[in-house]
Amino acid sequence: MPIAVDSMRAEMAQEYATRCLFASLHTVDPGQTGSDELAGIVRQAITWNVGDADGEIVSDSITFTLSAPAYVSHIGLWSGLSGGTFRDSLLVAADLPAGDYIVALSYTQT
């Protein structure tokens, strides 16, 4: 069921943003625990921005630098730079070349 009140949708989007502070790359579906992070890649900080007038969308772009080509199946979202609580994931499923990989993140509360 969608949330009917704009202010509640905005509060929920902001709560998501306060819990998902770092992003990681994963070689297979990280499941419920954040398993299989791509070795040698540091998690990147997320600075969520309000993406609409009502505050129901938060977004950011982050950059990972790969020293070698890699297959990435998912982006993981975490509460901490290392350790922390695994919060969410998004499917990517891409063979990436070495170099910078820019990820556009967006969360919409409905």
Give a verbal description of the structure:
The chain is mainly beta. The chain has one domain. Helices cover 13% and strands 45% of the residues. It has one helix spanning 6-19; strands at residues 22-26, 44-45, 49-50, 57-66, 70-78, 86-96, 99-108. The strands form two sheets. Strands 2-1-5-6 form a four-stranded antiparallel beta sheet, with no helix packed on it. A three-stranded antiparallel beta sheet has the order 3-4-7, with helices on one face. Strand 5 (70-78) and strand 6 form a beta hairpin. The radius of gyration is 15 Å and the shape is elongated. The relative contact order is 0.29. The model has no long low-confidence stretch (mean pLDDT 94).
Task: Kindly list the characteristics that best describe this protein.
110 residues, mainly beta, four-stranded antiparallel β-sheet, three-stranded antiparallel β-sheet
Q: Could you tell me the strand content as a percent range? A: 35-45%
Shape: elongated
Q: Total number of helical segments? A: 1
Mean pLDDT: 94
**Protein structure class:** mainly beta
Total domain units: 1
Order of secondary-structure elements: HEEEEEEE
Q: From the structure provided, what is the oligomeric state, counting identical versus distinct chains?
A: single chain
How many distinct beta strands?
7
Question: Helix fraction?
Answer: 10-25%
Task: Provide the spatial order of strands within the biggest beta sheet.
Answer: 2-1-5-6
Radius of gyration: 15 Å
Kindly, what is the distance between the CA atoms of the first and last residues, rounded to a whole number of angstroms?
Answer: 9 Å
Give the biggest beta sheet.
4 strands, antiparallel
Give the low-confidence spans: none
